[in-house]
Design goal:
322 residues; six-stranded mixed sheet; five-stranded mixed sheet
Length: 322
């Protein structure tokens, strides 16, 4: 793998610091990157890309450990309970941290207090799709139609208390839409019913849009702040008339609480450097992702804001997942 001088400098500067923090430095110690989902999914692909990219930068083997179950909570718990020595890291998403707490899941850890934020790696916005028979040409028309519908329009999500559920409920409240939730077990069946007009709206991941080859797909907007580079003709929710409406399925890197600052900095430097490398960077667009590369302070602030936002959205929904 080719590395830049900047990448090598960023990582090499942190190596002496981690050696002092640990007392002894052993590059032979494997590091577990816990992906809290089963192998083969989008987060697993992201984790393996980072593992491949970071291993040569730090001179340690990054072992991907898939710990699925309970929406990722089991994997997050494993990292929360691990020693804070830099050898156990969590590929974190809202499903284990902010949204999990917002919807009232009984968690065996505190999603803020039991983890140290390391890096906010990527954002994966979603797209708003509508059924082929919906009589609207743009997002403004869709929202007007949904506000004035005599009966609630059914919308799909990938499950109760998921990102796609809460993002639509946020839009519903902001735009005063007459819509009702129809949860599905995953995206495939929901997508089929959308194309058959049995449901009328849904938020979906961008890879689902990018990989679609049919001619009936109606994409109204994306939830990123700027237009997504691979879909330049699709406007954002903000420019389509929904002020400050931004949402993403973010991915970050967390360590156990109490991890020393030099170790946190070492992993921040290595993972953010990997974002610019030839293993990760060329794959981001196909994964529907945008690079962030923010450090612990920005990641921690985002976690607090994300938790507050989704707690407010979920409060009137009376969600009970336990």
């Amino acid at each position: 793998m080719m590395t830049t001088r900047r990448t090598l400098l960023a990582v090499s500067l942190t190596t002496p610091m981690i050696a002092r923090a640990q007392g002894t430095w052993s590059p032979d110690r494997a590091v577990r990157l816990v992906v809290p989902f089963a192998a083969g999914g989008g987060q697993d692909v992201i984790g393996r890309l980072f593992g491949q990219a970071v291993t040569p930068l730090v001179g340690q083997n990054i072992v991907i450990e898939n710990r699925g179950g309970a929406g990722g909570i089991l994997g997050a718990e494993a990292v929360a309970r691990a020693a804070p020595d830099g050898t156990a890291l969590l590929l974190a998403t809202a499903g284990q941290l902010t949204i999990a707490k917002a919807v009232g899941r009984r968690l065996p850890y505190d999603p803020l207090a039991d983890f140290t934020p390391v890096a906010w790696l990527i954002d994966s916005p979603v797209a708003l799709l509508v059924a082929p028979d919906l009589p609207a040409r743009d997002l403004a028309g869709v929202l007007d139609f949904a506000r004035g519908a005599p009966l609630p329009l059914p919308y799909a999500s990938t499950g109760i208390g998921t990102n796609t559920h809460l993002i639509m409920e946020d839009l519903k409240a902001r735009a005063r839409l007459n819509i009702e939730h129809v949860p599905y077990r995953g995206a495939a069946a929901a997508f089929t019913d959308l194309m058959a007009s049995r449901i009328k709206l849904m938020f979906v991941s961008l890879p689902s849009v990018l990989g679609f080859s049919g001619g009936q797909l109606r994409v109204m907007a994306v939830t990123s702040r700027e237009r997504f580079p691979a879909l330049p003709a699709i406007p954002t929710m903000i420019e389509s008339g929904v002020p400050d409406f931004e949402a993403s399925i973010w991915t970050g890197l967390s360590a156990p609480a109490g991890t020393p600052a030099p170790i946190v900095e070492r992993w921040r430097a290595a993972f953010t450097a990997a974002l610019e490398g030839e293993v990760v960077k060329p794959r981001l667009a196909a994964l529907g992702a945008l690079p962030r590369g923010a450090g612990p302070e920005a990641f921690g602030a985002m976690l607090r804001e994300d938790l507050a936002r989704w707690t407010a959205v979920a409060a009137p929904l009376s969600i009970n997942l336990d």
